[in-house]
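Much of our argument rests on the idea that a fold can be written as discrete symbols. In the encoding step, the backbone of a single protein was reduced to a row of integers, each denoting a local shape. This step matters because it turns folding into a mapping between discrete strings. For completeness, the protein is quoted in full, as a sequence line and a line of structure tokens:
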Amino acid sequence: MKLTQDNFTAIQDKLAIDGGQPVRTEPLPLEFPGVHHMDNEEIEAALRVLKARSPFRYYGIDLQGEVDAFESEFASFLGVNHAIAVNSGTAALHTALSALGVGPGQEVIVPAYMWVSVVAAVVNLGAIPVLADIDKTFCLDPAAVQKSITPRTSGMIVVHMSGAPANIVELLKVARERGMFLLEDCAQCAGGSVGGKKVGTFGDMGIFSFQMNKNMTSGEGGAVVTNDARLYDRAFACHDLGYARDDNGRTVFDNLALCLWGRGYRIDELRASILRVQLRKLPRIIAAMHGSKYRIRKALEEFPQLRLRKIVDPQGDTGSFLISTFDTPEVATQVNQALRAEGIVTSSQGVNNVVMTNWGLHVYFNIPSLVNKTSVDKKGSPWKLAENRDSTASYRKGTCPLADSLFERSILLAIPSCLTDRDEQDIVRAFRKVLGRQA
């Protein structure tokens, strides 16, 4: 069905996709929430470390203590006992799962909508990721988790996707009732909350990413948080050399419970100094995205042609993405193409305003290594390990039918942290023009 004025009512001007004048000709700003708020504060922080000639965490010419300070400040911001800064969100996942004792013979439940690093971390530890469907929050469905539990299930990774929290209270109930660990992946939701409680503090552990696309950033970076002292000690050893350290940064070998295997995921002083600045700015960054998103959402609520993503706690939504769902895949594709023709796009290096089946490695069936169960070794680990012989997980499209339907009927729009009034108005005008209302 071709999208024309005959399909939508009350269109006054010709759609750009049909040769009309587009709503805007300049691309929207790129996503990158934290980057848009970078200024001389981050430059001065980085220079402080460089001038001290001490970029390594544990010793230097004039050690500034940036990593220690960031960990303390981040833990305080979240309201959690312990934080460990690491060099990426992927490293945070590996560190947390290692601390939780994940390995061969175990299954870990993961959502159909996530990022490839989630399943990669499980696979790299020799365990089997088991997909569970999502609900209209676009995060794990508690009922689907219940159906996915087997005698081999050790825990679940709840991913707070696209800036808004999952139904974490109900998911935590499932975990506690079934004796499973719950790891929160807050990579895309730093600063988000449910009922005033920050995401990352509900489960046994939480992880964060500070990569370029995230709410706060140092280019790369991550963190592991927990209230459990034993898990903290294990995670600290795993992220480092495999051993604990004393107050002077010296390795400790006399506690066999903490003689583990390290992964060298330490973060450096340079990035920690930048993260300290970004953390202070995070409330402002979130406020900008949240304000833009909910002004746009309010305008879109008038259209019966679309449904907006279910938000568990609107006040705790960080606002970085807006998801709209349509009745059929055909309508979603037509609306998406028409919006893009109206100028609702970013520059070529960015990805914005996409039908979610095209959202790359965020969608389970778009991950070739997962779908085809590939391995980095000749023995087919972890899929063919003897310990995993009773696990029969499937990852092909159709495994999570509700997710499949939502992906093909939904459009994802990034909400940068620097949208102007004109940018917001243009987005709304484009939707109104395409959906058949007067601009």
Notes: The first helix runs from residue 40 to 52. Residues 8-12 have pLDDT under 50 and may be disordered. The chain has twelve helices and 15 strands. Residues 296 and 425 are 8 Å apart (CA to CA).
